[in-house]
Amino acid sequence: MDATLSTQQRAAAAEDAVISAYVHRYGPVAWGHAATDGDGARTWHYWWHAHLVHVLAEAERHRPSAARRRLIGDLLRGITVRTAGTWITPFYDDIAWMGLALAETRPHGRARARIARLLAGAFDPAVGALPWRTRSVLYNAPANGPAAMVLAPSRHRALAERMTAWMTAVLDDPATGLVRDGIEHGGVRPDLWTYNQGVAIGAALALGDGTRASTVLEAVDRWCAAEEGLFPAAGGGDGGLFAGILARYLGVAASRMDGEDADRARRLLRRNADALWAMRRDGAFPADPRRPALPTGDDRDLSVQLGAWITLEADVTASASVTS
To answer: Using CA atoms, how far apart are residues 141 and 175, in angstroms rounded to an integer?
Structure first.
């Protein structure tokens, strides 16, 4: 790590860059735009906002600030406006991400409870899992992992356990131990995305299953070893958040697990945080930490910058666990 900057300072720099470039206030409400240039500059994404609120809550734990608390409130009002007060979309994965964000910010208890009820009601007992969205035949890790985390501390804990058991039994890749994307029309979608691994670790830890978390963590470590410890990149758009989500739950693992597991999570996080920081250019991070950030294209998506910021906040979490 750059000896002149602490993990807190790096995370704070990422936060400042994201807020100044992407987040805009309109009176008492706020929201972020998808990109800093091009036709997508005014696009609003529900699930990106869930992660924006979530990482702001993480930053608030790390560096408390009255200004940040006001911004979180403005963003939550913006989401209320954008969803006409429902907090709901047709996508169960997006709804679960919002439920996790709201659990971090602590207000809107009624919205959190509604999200939990909706996720529990959408569970398909014939499959043993939650579909990706309404009227979908795709059942995947990005919906079931975060939904399990939402439901684990609720009266629906048994459903969370069934979701994680389904992921283990159906989606684990026998060859690598990694979590595949999902099933559709009876066939397995073999894609190995970083965020699938993150939500599997997060769900296992939410349910107190350290053995499962350790198994996936070891698989991730092997997977990244071929890339000098770096997470596989997934480009811009939604993919810009994938590695950051894995990083978030590696931070959780570093703070909750012991011994070799905690060290492994901490080491992976530091390697990726260092690479992102080294490839930063003009305050922006690259979609792929193997190269410098570019002034146009995927690197200018809010999702990419948000994913990098999440990684740097997770590095703060992991670093703090060493001395706590």
So the answer is: 18
Alpha carbons within 13 A on the beta-carbon side of 134: 6
Placement of tokens 């992660």 in the chain:
51
Asked whether the beta carbons of 288 and 233 are under 8 A apart, the reply is: yes
Give tens-digit pLDDT for 48-107: 999 999 999 999 999 999 999 999 999 999 999 999 999 999 999 999 999 999 999 977
* Side-chain-side CA neighbours of residue 302 (13 Å): 27
In angstroms, rounded to a whole number, what is the distance separating the alpha carbons of residues 209 and 207? 6
Give the CB-side neighbour count of residue 275, counting CA atoms within 13 A: 21
Domain architecture of the chain: domains with CATH: 7-323 (1.50.10.20)
- Of 146, 97, 144, 149, nearest to 124 by C-alpha is 144
SS3 125: coil
How far is residue 141 from each of residues 132, 171, 232, measured CA to CA in Å? 9, 8, 17
Q: What is the pTM of this model?
A: 0.96
CA distance 267 to 164: 26
What DSSP state is assigned to residue 41? G
Query: Strands 23-26 and 29-32: what pairing?
Result: antiparallel
Distance between CA atoms of 24 and 18, rounded to whole angstroms? 11
- Reported as a single tens digit per residue, the pLDDT across 105-147 is 977 788 899 999 999 999 999 999 999 999 999 999 999 999 9
Give me the residue label for tokens 């679960």.
96
